[in-house]
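pipeline stage [seq->struct] | target=Phosphate acetyl/butaryl transferase domain-containing protein | organism=bioreactor metagenome | residues=51
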Amino acid sequence: MTDTELIGPIQMGLNKPIHFTDIESSVRDIVNITAVAVIDALVDKKKASIK
């Protein structure tokens, strides 16, 4: 598994997840955490529309 990449940190266990980056984050890190945040938002929106 040499082609893996760590994405995070993501604070969980709250009402909503918190996505944050470090001051030294690369553009790629920011894009990756943004993608995770968008997916979380889409899942939340879908859950809300089902209720």
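stage status: PASS
auto-comment: The CA atoms of residues 13 and 30 lie 22 Å apart. The beta strands are 10-11, 18-19.
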